Amino acid sequence: MTTETEATAAASGAGATARFRENKQFAANTSQERVSTLANRVIKAINDTVLDEKVTYDEYNAFKAWLIRVGEDGEWPLFLDVWVEHSIVEVAEANRHGSKGAIEGPYYIPNAPVLNNPATLPMREDEPGTPLLFQGQVRNVAGEPLAGALIELWHADDAGFYSQFAPGLPEWNLRGSIIADEQGNFQINTMQPAPYQIPTDGACGALIAAAGWHAWRPAHLHFKVSAAEHQLITTQLYFEGGEHVSDDIASAVKPELVLAPTERADRQGREVTYDFILDPQD
Ligand code: DHB
Ligand code: FE
Hints:
Layout: H1 9-23, H2 32-53, H3 57-72, H4 76-83, H5 85-92, E1 114-116, E2 119-120, E3 131-140, E4 150-155, E5 175-179, E6 185-191, E7 196-197, H6 203-211, E8 216-217, E9 221-226, E10 233-239, E11 258-259, E12 262-263, E13 270-273, E14 276-278
The structure holds 3,4-dihydroxybenzoic acid and fe (iii) ion.
The site of 3,4-dihydroxybenzoic acid has 11 residues, from helix 4.
């Protein structure tokens, strides 16, 4: 049987590309003027780099070959989510007052199993790692609880792999859609995720190696939190003192998003409380 540790960039890239095409509905209503402005700026940024850095023909051809390979490996979602999405988030939440957002990344899958509160994420019988109880409340910016808010949570396992993108994992492993109770409260039992390494055997890995960078994101939990008449937030939470919290390759860590779990009274793992604050729909 194939196991998760045999994951390849080509397979997870192909999965991420297919998922992007399936899930994302983007309205192509950008005006001609706007397309022209944006395309001109990107092209100018590349040309400025060539002129400032005196890029050679060899370097130009290496760049061209690499771009071709990003597509062949299906790694455009990975590349963009690691190196660009954090700025998109910054623009998107400039006028929000609730909880901070963070990048979605390439591994979200909608319609994970719905779980009532208190919930335990789907996991293997012998799911490795340290149990983590994640609890809190969903409120609006006025401090009122949002009854029945939806918390979608997905994260990597104790080896740093995501279900449906690495082989050998049950379909919905460590993915769930939790409905908060009448007071907006939620309690979710899961397993502490491990840091995540960008696949090293694809085009993004080749860039990281050629540039002498590291390929790591700190351990993180991904969320989409929503409630009627409120803006959905997409965010991530990290763990204090964890590896790469201060040098995330995807530049997606913010101080407000770092959790400090404590040992549980029953010593059966760790627990932490975090409240999500949603802005009203505008
Ligand atoms: C990537 C993976 C993640 O888990 C994430 O949160 C962001 C980016 C990636 O491989 O591109
Ligand atoms: Fe992730």
